[in-house]
Amino acid sequence: MLLKETKIFIILFAIFPVVDALNGFVLSAGINLPIGVAYRLVCVGFLVFQIARKGFSKKIYTFLSVALIFCGIISLFIQTIVLQNDVTALLYDATNMIKFFLWVLIPYYVYQRVDLFTKTGYAKLFLAISTFFTLGLLIPYVLGIGNQTYAGSDAGYKAFFFANNDTTIGFIVSATFTGWYLFQQTKQTKIWTRLLLGLLYLGNLLGLLLLGTKTGIVYGVILTIVLLLRFFFFQKRVGPAAKWASA
């Protein structure tokens, strides 16, 4: 059973596509409000507090995690001294370094609580992220608001997501997990559950198409072909008739 603070962790990191879209909307409106920075600070503060509260195990993974964070902090100060950056530049670099710290702290938090996280818990987290990503792109697109993927062109559409390549990677990960999870379902799964998963997967693929990157489009096509081939020809635990009935 998940602890209350672990549920907070899931909610906090599941909503990051919403925060990203909101941050993009604020920037598009010309409002100087660092929503993304504030969100990352809250995430880091939560992780540091909960990790410290849990305690550190004397294992190599702990040493590596601490070493990475320590090296990141040292490199930040060395860069500031060598380049003779002012306080403003230091703070700017620090906000970017926080992104790196998150990549270290999140795995360590999960590592400390690996016995609490179940397969179902992971699935809910990734499906929530996938859903928010898809809605964050499709809703503005349908409403006709947001930012074009390519300036001065009608090609693509990325709503309020500014980092096109990063967003493409996000949709690639979302489509991969959603597609894998969809094709893992069986006849025992409720039809509306399979229908919603199918719509979410189609939404992921549409997102890749709207973003307009060649990598995203090609990946979406290849992923779908691979999943279909695996489902119908290589998944041994379900018979052919059951597969066609559940498809």
Folded structure, characterized:
The protein is mainly α. The chain has ten helices and no strands. It has helices at residues 4-14, 16-28, 35-54, 60-83, 87-112, 119-143, 164-182, 191-211, 214-234, 240-246.
Name a few traits of the molecule.
247 residues; mainly alpha; globular
Short synopsis of the structure:
The chain has 247 residues and is mainly alpha-helical. It is 76% helix and 0% strand.
Strand and helix order = HHHHHHHHHH
The percent of residues in helical segments reads over 70%
General shape: globular
Q: Low-confidence parts lasting 5 or more residues at pLDDT below 50? A: 239-247
Structure classification: mainly alpha
Total strands: 0
Strand content: under 5%
* Largest pleated sheet: none
Radius of gyration, whole Å: 21 Å
Q: Calculate the mean pLDDT score and round it.
A: 84
Tally the helices.
10
**First-last Cα distance:** 32 Å
Helix and strand topology:
Elements: H1 4-14, H2 16-28, H3 35-54, H4 60-83, H5 87-112, H6 119-143, H7 164-182, H8 191-211, H9 214-234, H10 240-246
